[in-house]
Design a protein that fits this description.
Mean pLDDT: 83
Strand content: under 5%
Shape: globular
Largest sheet: none
Amino acid sequence: MRAQSSATAPSRIAVGAAGADTGGGSSGTVQAALGVVAFSLTFPATAWGLEGFGPWSLIAVRSILAAAVAGACLLAVGVTPPGRRHWLGLAVVGAGVVLGFPLLTTLALQTSTTAHAAVVVGLLPLTTALLSALRIGTRPSRTFWFAALAGAAAVIAFTVQQSGGALTSADAYLFAALLVCAAGYTEGGRLARVMPGWQVIGWALVLCLPLTVPMAAVALSFEPVHLTGHSVTGLLWVAVGSQFLGLVVWYRGMAAIGIPKASQLQLAQPLLTLVWSVLLLGEHLTVAAPLTAAAVLVCIAVTQRARG
């Protein structure tokens, strides 16, 4: 009896830790929403970062800084490395969220405005929900899918109107970014059910260091660096705010309320990014922006009420 009690203790501790990490449904919604706010600042911050760094340098340095913060947190808490069965999932998170999405969107922002990029990436919630259904067998209701498709249609219409009906090479980068990021979100949300969300992104960042450190060394030797207030602020935000803290609350939220519902909160992200684009970058919005905002917010309300 004593041996059995000792053997089950770690399992109880793990379950308790997971429960403390995810919280209730309302808490999960708040945490996922905070993640969306953090992500909405990513494109304007990237545009600032590109004022002083090349695209490859910016991606590598931001990942290293985020990994340094994450690694320090892991060491301070004394977290043991995850089990071998979780490393493949962490590699998917790293490839999609740590490297793929930041790189592809940064390349796109060299020729695209943040407003245009934001509305294209507005398709991310639907992409994430689709991959989630394929990967972990989630089955949202028909109402959920109808609202999700309606929100995606509104975003697509806005995108086409903004670009004049023509897709560019930047759009190709952005559509590729949608796929890799959705894969990273789906796998991260799944892992956040068995380990704290901050450890998911923390280990993914550390796992990418063998790639990002040499990448930074090569990129910085070829791409000139001009440090300015904007470039340093942008770098620090995408490294600490978007790449680590934002993903911590995002994965916690997904674990609490489910990947499909959490992903639909991101329908508000392009509209928030448009606001930041005006306030921080001086970009101009069209009349279609508030109309799209109203349609997207209605879709969010419907998806959050729909039962899977």
